Amino acid sequence: MTIKYPVYQPNISGNEKKYVNECLNSTWISGKGKFIDKFEKDFAQFIGCSHAVAVCNGTVALHLALEALGIGDGDEVIVPTLTYVASVNAITYTGAKPIFVDSLADTWQVDPVDVRKKITGKTKAILCVHLYGHPCEMQRLVEIAKDHDLFLIEDCAEAIGSKYEGKHVGGFGDIATFSFYGNKTITTGEGGMVTTNNSTLYERIVHLKGQGLAKYREYWHDAIGYNYRMTNICAAIGLAQLERVNSIIEKKIEIANWYRKELNNTNIQFHSQAENIVHSYWMCTILLPENIDRQKLKIYLLENGIETRPMFYPVHTMPIYAQKYEEHKVAEALARRGMNLPSYPELSLADIKEIVKCIKSFENQFIIEE
Ligand SMILES: *Cc1c(COP(=O)(O)O)cnc(C)c1O
Fold first, then answer.
1. Which UniProt keyword terms apply here (predicted)?
2. For 35-65, how does the pLDDT look when each residue is reduced to its tens digit (9 = 90+)?
């Protein structure tokens, strides 16, 4: 069957080809080059932080953030269970233990009360995730981190363009990370960024990203580092994307508002928005009523050319992380009911109307008030 509306597709309508050709023509195609430098500089400026380091994906960005903070064996890192698995895997790579916390029912973000409850003598950091583009409650998380002398890491993979009290996410903790995977708000194909306002941490990130190369001696390595470099080609794409980031974000917010309006008279629920924030709507996600068979609806929509995704499964329920039985009731209920709708920037109001019409026609299952 043909898919008319995929969940996502990147918008590559700007200077991407021109910049990539510049890389090819100049032979600067590897992990050094002017597009990397410019992408890092402009990205830092966009986020409003002092330093940005381009890396090859969002997962290694998290790994570097944790390593730069010295997190490792025997440490505990608090993380929401309702996130993409990479947030948790990166903690595991360092030898530290992920400690799962539940989510808030309205904003779907990490529950600060549960964070406080899970702090032990081994806790070193809180890794918060601005899930689906809605910022976490940063004021409370910053306060908790301060009270307990913990590092705060922000996983902003889904949150470029998201603001908390007027300030872009990524500047509230010690280090933040971003992803530029193909379905993220801006993309480099595969790619990521680490940002910080701390110059010591910045130097450690650069050092670890490039094989732990000593600063003043060639081919001498004074740490076991990694090759986590981004290529100049990816950075060329990223720079062209960044030039259009504001219009992409505006369009995504518009799409979310269209869905909200068109589904307004049904018993489908929306991601609620706190007052003091800008939600950048990486994905437009709805909550289905408990009685709706999500898998059946998914197949029905697919038969009509509309692709959807379930919400992330809470990581504590995956066998690789379920050694100890845990319950996180809010996250589990959200994950059971959540569905991502097509959310890419080319969608028009007519497209949204067609998608919504199809959802509403599902076996007369939704309550629709006329
Ligand atoms: C996409 C994503 C990542 C990982 O990014 P990759 O670039 O795919 O490695 C990490 N955390 C969250 C919350 C994400 O959505």
1. Aminotransferase, Pyridoxal phosphate, Transferase
2. 999 999 999 999 999 999 999 999 999 999 9
Strand partners, 270: 286
Residue 74's Cβ-side half-sphere holds a number of Cα atoms within 13 Å equal to 2
Phi and psi, residue 79, nearest 5°: -145, 145
State which of 194, 213, 242 marks the end of a domain.
242
Same domain, 95 and 232: yes
Ligand 1 geometric centre to CA of 156 (Å): 9
* 229: β partners: 55
**Domain boundary pick from 182, 209, 242:** 242
Q: How far apart are the first and last CA of the chain?
A: 33
**Residue in 56, 87, 234, 311 to alter for ligand 1 test, most ligand atoms within 8 A of Cβ:** 87
In ligand 1, the atom with minimum distance to the C-alpha of 86 is: 10
Dig out the tokens for 204 from the structure: 């450690």
Residues with CB under 6 A from ligand 1: 57-59, 83-84, 86-87, 129, 155, 157-158, 179, 181, 192
Atom 2 in ligand 1: which residue has the minimum CA distance? 157
Residue 351: domain span:
246-366
DSSP 276: T
Whether the full predicted model's pTM is greater than 0.90, yes or no, is yes
